[in-house]
Amino acid sequence: HTRTLWRLLERHRLPVFLFVNKLDLPGADRGALLAGLRALGFGIICYINHYPDFIVRLKSGMTVLVETKGDQLDNSDSRNKVELGTTWANKAGKWYRYFMVFDKQQMDGAITVGELLERLKEM
Questions:
Q1: Edge-first strand listing for the sheet containing 111-112
Q2: Rounded to whole angstroms, how far apart are CA atoms 123 and 111?
Q3: I want to staple 37 with a disulfide (CB 3.0 to 4.6 A). Which of 10, 15, 42, 67 is the partner?
Q4: Are 115 and 123 contacting, i.e. CB atoms less than 8 angstroms apart?
Q5: Which three-class secondary structure string do you get for 7-62?
Q6: Strand 54-57 and strand 63-69: pairing?
């Protein structure tokens, strides 16, 4: 079934955002994994520990990735994650969005929970 799914994604030229988990475990061979993915035709733009908390397909057909952050966090890596998510969404096309969401805290490129809810209503 996996090969069929990949063929369909390729045939319809749908963008794929692949998350690979557990690379931080002892014995994980990041280099071999990335080489294997490249051999399968994946273009690796980066790898960092950034996995959105939610991936939602709306009734409109829009796919939304949401990374939530607690206001107590210092944002040391959040700026890079916003940049990565925004770059992905821009390259994926008009049916894809990425949001980093804080409860109330402001940060360039991120929005609050209230702003997210308003934007989702518009989609």
A1: 54-57, 63-69, 96-102, 111-112
A2: 16
A3: 42
A4: no
A5: HHHHHCCCCCCCCCCCCCCCCCCHHHHHHHHHHCCCCCCCCCCCCCCEEEECCCCC
A6: antiparallel
Calculate the CA dihedral of residues 35, 39, 43, 45 and round it to 10 degrees.
0
Residue 102 amino acid letter: F
Residue with tokens 């280099």: 31
Determine the Cα angle at 27 with ends 46 and 41, to 5°. 35
pTM of the model: 0.61
| 62 and 123 Cβ atoms separated by less than 8 Å | yes
Output the CA torsion 104→17→44→29 (10° steps).
90
pLDDT tens, residue by residue, 92-122: 889 999 998 988 777 888 888 899 999 998 9
Give which of 58, 61, 59, 67 is closest to 14, Cα–Cα: 61
Contact 16, 88 (CB under 8 A): no
